[in-house]
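A.,

Following up on our hallway conversation. Structure tokens first:
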């Protein structure tokens, strides 16, 4: 099947099928969403206005049998950060979209009136229909309704109640194969989808298949690739304890942000750790290993049941558990799981919302440690769009500004995730310089700073951190274009056969001849394209800074501050 671009105009409710321009042909995933957003979106436009666009693209290897290749990229201008944004997630969206021969779906314009719509994507194009039944419903109920209504195998991508209310922390939710939810979490792209009044997108690939130019070479490369993934100790730990294996590790390092970033260790760490979580899951008959899309050989996801053995949440990630746990001082895993479920149901970013909740705790809106009240606020205030709910649902910066708090952990207005940049300095460079606001996944220096993957760089000294963050941000931008889950990076950094096998997969898929330098150049091109968009939107190096308190308040137990000069941070872009 020849790949195509589908363009949906929500102003006049029409769609067109376009050939893939030559300049876009070599791109997929984040590389493609950022290329299109940079080319077609006015950088100074209002993110929730008609000039913004949502671009959805599977990775270069999505839809094939390549292990872990099912990530779907969603891009646009972020209402949270004002920068360019790409957020990717698992689920079946990427695989089905690639099989339908859709290289990118571009949604532009904005309808007049109050009606909402759905988009049904097939290999033949897209059908736009008015939607009423799922409006105002939580994501889980909406998915249940759609599973009964839609015929054949369907991927479902939707915006939840938070996106309908255009909250800046709203995510785009993607159904996983078991009716669970994966989230394109960061940056409020759910609000952009909501601004276009698109409630959901379904994708039915029918009998579509992704063509492989050299099938035998592809098969051989995939075998080598999957073998490297399965053999790495970090990926094995991810399969055993999920990403939550990190609670005890990061606590031990003194970099677990606790009580709104005032401490680097949490007294209740054991109660919320991956080890406790795995034991609880086993006791209650949940699932320790689970994948967010078919073909994942790592299986970091899991199904967490309540005390009665009923499913409470799935895809229970370290960053979500840290944010509602250590950062809000909640040491009860059931309360955190309940909060996670509510946030999935509302379609709101669990990192942004929980970091915002910790700032609200500092402001005295609720007590630190009060998980039940946090759940009530999520359900009753954010869920119902009360004034308090909208303040928190608009993110960490919104809460800080409303209550006059100065300890507001954000960069470019996006909440800082689960690793304190004073005790793990490399990640501070990533937060500061990322084109998309504070985001650990943009250049995950934890791998080398803490896990000793791809070498070792002392987390507490400045030496080597800028270079480490730069190399990882370049590599990540390239990986985000393939549709690969970022957790392949551990094997790619340590196993000399892994990265060549990944490149062989791309070469065999398209019958091309990329080498390692081409991959690095792709990563550099993506970062520069994104930065150029931000520059045109009005961002300067002054925006590449951490909040003042990281420079002034020392973090126990190491009693360290973030001590990079502006010049040192800016040297990140010397490439
Ligand atoms: S490792 Fe985890 S996030 Fe990655 S594809 Fe597998 S289940 Fe999804």
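Then the amino acids I'd put at each of the 575 positions:
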């Amino acid at each position: 099947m020849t790949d195509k671009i589908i363009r949906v105009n929500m102003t006049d409710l029409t769609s067109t099928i376009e050939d893939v321009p030559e300049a876009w042909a070599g791109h997929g995933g984040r590389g493609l969403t950022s290329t299109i957003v940079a080319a077609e979106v006015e950088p100074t436009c209002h993110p929730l206005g008609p000039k913004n666009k949502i671009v959805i693209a599977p990775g270069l290897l999505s839809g094939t049998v390549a292990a872990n290749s099912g990530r779907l990229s969603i891009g646009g201008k972020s209402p949270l950060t004002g920068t360019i944004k790409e957020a990717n997630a698992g689920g079946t969206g990427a695989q089905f979209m690639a099989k339908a021969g859709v290289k990118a779906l571009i949604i532009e314009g904005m309808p007049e009136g109050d009606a909402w719509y759905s988009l049904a994507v097939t290999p033949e194009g897209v059908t736009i229909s008015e939607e009423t039944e799922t409006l105002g419903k939580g994501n889980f109920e909406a998915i249940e309704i759609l599973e009964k209504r839609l015929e054949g195998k369907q991927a479902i991508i939707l915006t939840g109640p938070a996106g309908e209310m255009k909250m800046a922390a709203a995510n785009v939710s993607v159904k996983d194969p078991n009716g669970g939810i994966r989230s394109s979490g960061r940056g409020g792209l759910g609000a952009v989808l909501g601004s276009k009044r698109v409630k959901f997108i379904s994708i039915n690939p029918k009998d579509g298949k992704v063509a492989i130019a050299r099938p035998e070479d592809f098969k051989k490369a995939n075998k080598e690739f999957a073998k490297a993934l399965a053999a790495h100790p970090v990926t094995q730990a991810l399969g055993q304890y999920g990403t939550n294996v990190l609670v005890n590790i990061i606590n031990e390092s003194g970099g677990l942000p606790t009580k709104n970033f005032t401490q680097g260790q949490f007294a209740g760490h054991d109660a919320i750790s991956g080890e406790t979580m795995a034991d609880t899951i086993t006791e209650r008959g949940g699932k320790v290993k689970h994948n967010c899309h078919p073909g994942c050989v790592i299986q970091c996801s899991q199904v967490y049941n309540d005390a009665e053995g009923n499913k409470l949440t799935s895809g229970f990630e370290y960053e979500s558990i840290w944010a509602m746990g250590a950062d809000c001082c909640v040491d009860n895993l059931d309360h955190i799981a309940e909060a996670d479920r509510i946030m999935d149901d509302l379609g709101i970013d669990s990192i942004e919302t929980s970091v915002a909740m910790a700032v609200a705790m500092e402001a005295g809106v609720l007590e630190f440690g009060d998980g039940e009240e946090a759940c009530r606020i999520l359900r009753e205030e954010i869920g119902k769009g009360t004034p308090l709910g909208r303040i928190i649902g608009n993110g960490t910066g919104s809460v800080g500004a409303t209550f006059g708090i100065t300890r507001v952990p954000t960069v470019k207005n996006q909440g800082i995730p689960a690793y304190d940049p004073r005790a793990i300095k490399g990640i501070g460079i990533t937060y500061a310089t990322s084109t998309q606001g504070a985001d650990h996944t943009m250049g995950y220096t934890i791998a080398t700073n803490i896990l000793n993957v791809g070498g070792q760089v002392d987390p507490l000294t400045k030496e080597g951190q800028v270079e480490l963050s730069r190399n990882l941000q370049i590599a990540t931008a390239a990986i985000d274009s393939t549709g690969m889950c970022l957790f392949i990076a551990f094997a790619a950094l340590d196993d000399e056969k892994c990265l060549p096998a990944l490149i062989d997969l791309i070469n065999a898929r398209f019958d091309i001849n990329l080498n390692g330098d081409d991959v690095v150049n792709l990563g550099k091109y993506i970062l520069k394209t994104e930065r150029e968009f931000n520059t045109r939107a009005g961002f300067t190096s002054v925006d590449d800074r951490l909040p003042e308190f990281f420079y002034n308040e020392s973090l126990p137990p190491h009693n360290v501050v973030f001590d990079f000069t502006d010049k040192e941070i800016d040297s990140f872009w010397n490439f």
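The radius of gyration is 22 Å. Curious whether your intuition agrees with the design.

B.
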